[in-house]
Amino acid sequence: MSFRGVVPPLVTPFRPDGALDVAGLEENLERLSSHAFSGFLVLGSSGEAQSLDEDEKLALITAARRRLDGRPLFAGTGLESTRATVAFTKKAAERGIDAALVLTPHYYRASMTDEALRRHFEAVADASPVPVYLYSVPAFTGLPWPPGLAEALAPHPRIAGMKESSGDVALLGRIVAGVPASFEAACGNARVYYPALCVGASGGVLSVANCAPAASVALHAAFMAGDHARARLLQAALLPLATAIGTRFGVAGIKAAMDAAGLHGGAVRAPLLPVSAEGREELRRLVDAAQAAAAPA
Amino acid sequence: MSFRGVVPPLVTPFRPDGALDVAGLEENLERLSSHAFSGFLVLGSSGEAQSLDEDEKLALITAARRRLDGRPLFAGTGLESTRATVAFTKKAAERGIDAALVLTPHYYRASMTDEALRRHFEAVADASPVPVYLYSVPAFTGLPWPPGLAEALAPHPRIAGMKESSGDVALLGRIVAGVPASFEAACGNARVYYPALCVGASGGVLSVANCAPAASVALHAAFMAGDHARARLLQAALLPLATAIGTRFGVAGIKAAMDAAGLHGGAVRAPLLPVSAEGREELRRLVDAAQAAAAPA
Amino acid sequence: MSFRGVVPPLVTPFRPDGALDVAGLEENLERLSSHAFSGFLVLGSSGEAQSLDEDEKLALITAARRRLDGRPLFAGTGLESTRATVAFTKKAAERGIDAALVLTPHYYRASMTDEALRRHFEAVADASPVPVYLYSVPAFTGLPWPPGLAEALAPHPRIAGMKESSGDVALLGRIVAGVPASFEAACGNARVYYPALCVGASGGVLSVANCAPAASVALHAAFMAGDHARARLLQAALLPLATAIGTRFGVAGIKAAMDAAGLHGGAVRAPLLPVSAEGREELRRLVDAAQAAAAPA
Amino acid sequence: MSFRGVVPPLVTPFRPDGALDVAGLEENLERLSSHAFSGFLVLGSSGEAQSLDEDEKLALITAARRRLDGRPLFAGTGLESTRATVAFTKKAAERGIDAALVLTPHYYRASMTDEALRRHFEAVADASPVPVYLYSVPAFTGLPWPPGLAEALAPHPRIAGMKESSGDVALLGRIVAGVPASFEAACGNARVYYPALCVGASGGVLSVANCAPAASVALHAAFMAGDHARARLLQAALLPLATAIGTRFGVAGIKAAMDAAGLHGGAVRAPLLPVSAEGREELRRLVDAAQAAAAPA
Question: Left, alpha or beta for B85 (phi > 0: left; psi -120 to 50: alpha)?
Fold first, then answer.
């Protein structure tokens, strides 16, 4: 169970009436399971966790747990208050997740001092039945990750690692230099996955792994094999897709790209808007290009 | 029922064990009711709505509704998804709120285009049993309010107004110029309440009204009476308190200032941190100075 | 000589070949002199000072000084280094300016601590033969004005006031509260001129005064006469023009609006681009609307 | 002559009286010339170009040209206006620079559209007697580099490459993917030099090369030799020094670190402040650690 490899942050399929489509999630898991992922994440930012209620979240965990048998299952459990995060992490652990990904609280951002964040993560880790991974994604939270915080938290016996999604490779390098080798510093930004590995990232939680699984896994494998030329080529092949999703299409883009790849993407929940027909066509081309690069030479 | 006057965005008191302190809320309402407020708001940003679960939120509404008899009660009902916002707005309406304040969704901020926000507010207003007020607070959401959006939404029969908390007086002036006189454009930033009234704000939803109610109401009354000299003096007296809360102490500061003013402020929910002893002393002085300015000459 | 009234930050006309058009400046001064301005500023941001060399700057000062006889002439003299600012301020003073407007250095913005800025302004004021006004314009410099800096510098015998152009009325209110009445805190953002006056601004350095001089001066006069209704109306009339210039058209927009008003606007220096024909038409309408509001009732 | 290797952006030494110390520059060049740099840059951001007048700039170029004999000499020649940039680039070329580094104009940042920047760079390149390199450094300019601009400009016969200093490795990867192999995309941020090379950067213009020349050159050599383990180690050794300079100490920190390394750093021009004694000690330790990593195993 680890972030030492690629982990797809699974999207949450919805039925045409807007209800949760658990069967869609199960089929996606089935399809994605043929790739050499090191684990699966539900309830991340790509999973529209912010738009799900607690019952839906627990149903997703239960379904994923059942499908994955013994393979590692991570779930995003972070909420705005420490109290609610602890409570939900416990419920998620009861449903069988292997580890919890805890997002930085951020609504009261001016109050999220280093000390406030440190206490929050410590309190959650103290109470969590399962290992905890820190999670920073400034593009969504508006909150930069404070220098030194991962290093201060790494000694906690229940804090296993971090997902750092800013795309700031230097930050990841600094974190890697300041934590023990057992701390898993995962890159959460597919635009810089290869350079992040170069500076010591343990693996990646990559939204493009939902729609370009072969290329994502191949990049990791090439790096592990010391094949920098191929890793660089695969990164270049993934970059346009990752950039399109990261800067223009968002979660709706991941889902449209999954549709293009023959998986269950489908609709997003409002206020997110669907991708236009032109956008879907562009994403289809980007998926094809990324996956083509992963084909055996 | 209106934002034509001052509305305090009520804080949410907690018991020492961290549970909701409904009696504390009721005592605050009792005390604040002696001031000439035009209504009361629960579940705003000052109310730590982001840290409350749904049962707690509904309990607060129920208690406030009971205490206020016929006086106007507003509640923040905005959540990240349109679906959840509609559902909760209906539940809040069933508990008797007079109007709902709907925060801009913001987690997927890059996807919150003008169209996404417009559709969100329209869908909520279409479904809401009670009038809806738009709510923008970039300091918390990281999302600037798009030019023209209030103007586009103002014709909706169930959209009654807006709370604009950025402190950008020019933005408020532009909104006022583009909406009918019946649209209530309230200022949500006490640092600029008097200048906001000068450019046409209908009233204010002011966190300082929790701890400096007399000065807040007096400022509004002075402006309505055409006494600009007194309004300016009261604004100057409120500015240091409002600045201290807005830029340094946050919600914990509002609560500490209420403690200083003899109301139930009390603890905040983590990850928010309590105000230090020095900070509490500073806030006490600022409250005293603000309230002194409101004393009859 | 003062910022107690409206001061136009004059644009710098260029000839078709790109050279300085001193005669154009003189004609603008002639035309604008019929309005009740409290002074004139050359070499501000609206004057494209960043695109002028020293000889051109001194030629502009000389021409303006000659035209204005005894009327107050201000000049922007701030450069990135303290040394260069001191040297140029002295040269400008020799050409007869009445006071110098000193922009915050900003290229090394992370190094522009409160202390760095304080020492810079003190050193310039110590060496300047003429009174000094502080100048902050975050839209151009990317540097917010630090709380307390104006208050710390106000006692300096040669620091006479400040031009604060952020549009943050609360900041202006705080500055006014912390400096002696002799310190002139001018608003440099026409979108909030009326509310800025309400919280104590001494006057305004307003780019719209170049193209809508009558409305700008009338707003100030209405406020001074206690006619808040008319001041608010004039502010509302200037707001669309000021917003269009401030957020979309920039300096090229001021110049196009001057052309529309019958003054010498003309070309901007590259890399600034000229306003399109549609933009010019829009600016013409906005100028007409603003000036119409100033017509006697 | 190229950015295919490491280029130090030379600092500008000053004498105790604040005047230019040309002899100091010459000694630094003498000392640094023993390292395998691919060229030298004067008048970059590290060279306090913003605080130098034209005579000083030309004197620096002349001195550097004389000292370097045939080795490549680059100079920063970008100014706010196209006209001034062209004029100064020509003067610099007359003094013998091999190529000009042209900074994005940025004061009127809202007006710096893709088209405005493209036209600026094209006009400068059209007029320049020497090859031109584009230069983006958002930490100083506040201006992000627009997607597609380097790609659009790369075909120009006199545009030879770019210095991209944001630290955004994904951006560099995108640029590399969109330009011909002859276009030299140099990394201007030492915090990510190794990962930047991994995604295709041609070389680096690194401020730490002034104070840790051996480690900077060794990192490049290790990468070229395919020794990723050593490159990663050297990057990790340079990261704390580069971070300290980049985020806390600025140009004054580079100079203090040079003093620690036995070169002529010396004073900065105000408003930059000198590094404190504690800061100098910290920088000495960071320089020692970085250089130790470069020692032969």
Answer: alpha
Whether the CB-CB separation of D49 and D84 falls below 8 Å is answered with no
Question: Are B211 and B287 in contact, with CB atoms under 8 Å apart?
Answer: yes
In terms of Cα–Cα distance, which of B19, B75, B29, B24 is closest to B210? B29
Measured distance CA(C69)–CA(B143) in Å, rounded: 50
Q: What is the pLDDT of residue B3?
A: 83
Buried b (16+ CB within 10 A) or exposed e, B31-60: ebeeeebbbbbbbbbbbbbbbbbeebbbbb
C-alpha distances out from residue D135 to C87, D58, D105, D203, Å: 29, 20, 10, 14
| Min Cα separation B296/chain A (Å) | 36
Tell me the residue length of chain A: 297
Nearest CA among B275, B267, B277 for reference residue B51: B267
pTM above 0.95, yes or no: yes
β-sheet bridge partners, residue C99: C74
Share above pLDDT 70 across residues of chain C, in percent, rounded to a whole number: 99
D235/D7 Cα distance (integer angstroms):
16
* Per-residue burial over A241-255, b = 16 or more CB atoms within 10 Å of its CB, e = otherwise: bbbbbbeebbbbbbb
| H or E element, residue B31 | helix B22-32
Find out whether B205 and B7 touch, Cβ atoms under 8 Å: yes
Q: Which residues pair with B75 in a beta bridge?
A: B42, B100
Active site residue C163: yes
Ramachandran region of residue D282, left (φ > 0), alpha (ψ -120 to 50) or beta? alpha
- Identify whether B266 is part of a domain: no
Q: Which helix (H) or strand (E) holds D89?
A: helix D82-94
Preferred mutation among C104, C108, C112, C121 to probe D, highest tally of D CBs within 10 A: C108
* Residue ranges making up the domain that contains C55: 6-215
Residues in D touching C254 (Cβ below 8 Å): none
- Touch between A and D (at least 3 CB pairs under 8 Å): yes
Report if residue D278 sits inside a domain: no
- Per-residue pLDDT tens for B91-123? 999 999 999 999 999 999 999 999 999 999 999
Query: Residues of B with catalytic annotation?
Result: 163
What is the rounded distance in angstroms from the CA atom of residue A193 to the CA atom of residue A235?
7
Alpha-carbon separation of residue C112 from C148, D165, D270 (angstroms): 15, 20, 10
Rounded to whole angstroms, how far apart are CA atoms C191 and C7?
15
Catalytic residue annotation of A:
163
For residue A247, is it within any domain?
A: no
Cα distance from B225 to chain A (closest Cα, Å)? 36
**Rounded Cα–Cα distance for residues D59 and C265 (Å):** 38
Query: CA dihedral defined by C3, C4, C6, C9, rounded to 10 degrees?
Result: 0
Residue with token string 């580069």: D242
C-alpha span between A33 and A30 (Å, rounded): 5
Would A153 be classed as within a structural domain?
yes
Of D170, D199, D226, the CB nearest to A167: D170
**CA D231/CA D215 separation, integer angstroms:** 10
Substitution target from A145, A164, A168, A169 for chain D, most D beta carbons within 10 A: A169
CA separation (Å) from B272 to A83, A138, A139? 11, 19, 22
B residues 129-168 closer than 8 Å to A (CB): 139-142
For chain B, give me the number of helices (H) and strands (E)? 12, 8
pLDDT of D52 strictly over 80: yes
Check: CB of residue A257 under 8 Å from CB of residue A265.
yes
Number of domains in chain C: 1
Asked if the model's pLDDT at residue A296 lies above 80, the reply is no
> The domain spanning residue C47 has which CATH number?
3.20.20.70
Q: Tell me, what's the ipTM? A: 0.97
